[in-house]
Task: inverse folding
């Protein structure tokens, strides 16, 4: 009998980008079903934890500045925000 195949699904997170800086509207936080969007008083924006995000997209429409994108659709000029979001949660 052949060994069972293991299927791994890579999860893709949403990413908060440059337009959030200075706006820091909490509409996205209020609708997130898994509470994966965080910030602190010293930060100028919110961040999505890529390990907690379930890729549901609930945060996208409430964002008043259109700052949230699926990871694979982040505009090229803001692609560095993928790392910025992930790095926020490494501490």
Result:
């Amino acid at each position: 009998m052949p060994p069972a195949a293991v299927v791994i699904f890579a999860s893709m997170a949403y990413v908060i980008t440059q337009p959030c800086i200075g706006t820091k509207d909490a509409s996205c936080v209020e609708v997130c079903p898994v509470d994966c969007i965080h910030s602190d008083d010293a930060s100028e924006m919110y961040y999505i934890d890529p390990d907690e995000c379930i890729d549901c997209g609930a945060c996208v429409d409430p964002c008043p500045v259109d700052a949230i994108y699926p990871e694979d659709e982040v505009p090229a000029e803001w692609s560095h925000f993928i790392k910025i979001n992930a790095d926020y949660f490494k501490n």
